[in-house]
Design brief:
This protein is mainly beta. The strands form six sheets. A four-stranded antiparallel beta sheet has the order 3-2-6-7, with no helix packed on it. Strands 8, 9, 11 and 14 form a four-stranded antiparallel beta sheet that branches. A four-stranded antiparallel beta sheet has the order 13-12-16-17, with no helix packed on it.
């Protein structure tokens, strides 16, 4: 994102270049009383000296504070969630963002690894706030149970992302074996074992169970 600065004074019409932190700024516009320029990208965070030049003489014009965009590690409102359930994600951005920026909450896989295009489970559109914000995220209904899901927050303009959150468990049931069994009449297959993953309270997953099978339809 381009950030423009304005230097005010007198007799500025002859200024031909501006440097910020030793790097030449672009987008120079001058009048007798104002000089406008675009802050170069890639500057280190901190104070950067601003200098004006008329091609012969260099004039110091004070310092510009460079604040890089960043997003804090998201804090989760729950450590366990059901498939299809909701939970809060709190984060705080720093730096400067465009008015059209969006903050998106992305979900990893059950191992905590983010895909190239991970699922987005919450979005704040047209948002450039740098105060603490809390958004409600919804776990996709088809998410398998697992112990190490994580989320991160990603901004669109400028593009920057947070570190991954603490682990988030998705309550569910793991069934083994998962491979198909081809059985002959009166032949017994391998025993199917259902194991509850991370119950929310005691032996109850707290999640909505699947409808019971109708025995008359067997």
């Amino acid at each position: 994102m381009d950030t423009e600065i304005t230097i005010s004074g007198s007799n500025l019409g002859g200024i031909t270049s501006v440097t910020i932190g030793g790097v030449t700024a672009s987008g120079l516009v001058t009048t007798a009383t104002n000089v406008k320029a675009i802050v170069p990208s890639g500057l280190a965070q901190g104070s950067a000296a601003v200098e004006l030049s008329d091609g012969v003489t260099t004039y110091p014009a004070g310092d510009f504070m460079v604040t890089l965009a960043g997003i804090s590690t998201p804090q989760l409102g729950s450590s366990t969630v059901c498939p299809g359930g909701s939970f809060s994600v709190t984060f705080q951005a720093s730096g400067s963002y465009a008015a059209t920026n969006s903050f998106s909450v992305e979900l990893s896989d059950a191992s905590g690894v983010f895909a190239t295009t991970p699922p987005v489970i919450a979005t704040l559109l047209n948002n450039n706030m740098t105060t603490s914000q809390t958004v409600t995220a919804t776990m996709p209904a088809a998410t398998p149970g697992g112990l190490n899901y994580k989320v991160r927050v990603v901004a669109s303009n400028p593009v920057v992302q947070s570190l991954a959150s603490a682990a988030l468990a998705v309550s569910g049931v793991a069934i083994a074996p998962t491979t198909a069994q081809n059985l002959l009449t009166n032949e017994n297959g391998a025993t199917l074992t259902a194991t509850e993953i991370t119950p929310l309270t005691g032996g109850d997953s707290g999640c909505t169970p699947l409808p019971a099978e109708d025995p008359t339809r067997r």
